[in-house]
Amino acid sequence: xxxxxxxxxxxDLVAFVSARLVDDEAVAREAAGLTECWLAEEPAIGVVLVDxxxxxxxxxxxxxxxxxxxxxxRTFREVAAKxxxxxxxxxxxxxxxxxxxxxxxxxxxxxxxxxxxxRFRAPCPTLLFLAATWSDHPDYAALLSR
Length: 146
Fold this sequence. Notes:
Blueprint: H1 10-32, E1 39-41, E2 46-50, E3 53-58, H2 63-69, H3 72-88, E4 91-92, E5 97-101, H4 102-109, H5 125-131, H6 138-145
Antiparallel strand pairs: 1-2, 2-3, 4-5
C-alpha cells in the first residue's frame, strides 16, 4: 500500500526500522562482550580503552572520542528509545487502520495546528525521520520508491 506521495506503507517502514534496530543491537551486544562503557583518551596519539586495554590506538586524535561516545550502552539506549517511537506511532484505531498513524491522525483529528496535519497517511513524518538514520542502507531507497 502506498500513500499519495508514492511512499511505501507505514508497515514496511516499521519493518525496515525494526530490522535495523535488531542489527544495531546485535553489533552492540557483541561489542558489549568486552564492556558496555568505553572511555577515550586524547593525547597526540588517540587510544580507546576497553577494560583498561587499548582497543584502537595510533594517530587518530578526534576519532577516539567519537568511538567511545557510541559505546554499547548508548546503542542500547538508542535502540530502546527508537522502539518506543515506533510503538507510539503505530497504526490508528487499535491497529485496525494500518494506513494511518495513531499519533499524527489524532493531532489532525483534534484540529490542532500541525505542520504535517494534512498528511496523516502512513508512513507518518516521524517514522520517515527515524528511518533516515539508515539512509545509507541498500534497502532504504527501494523502500521509499515503492
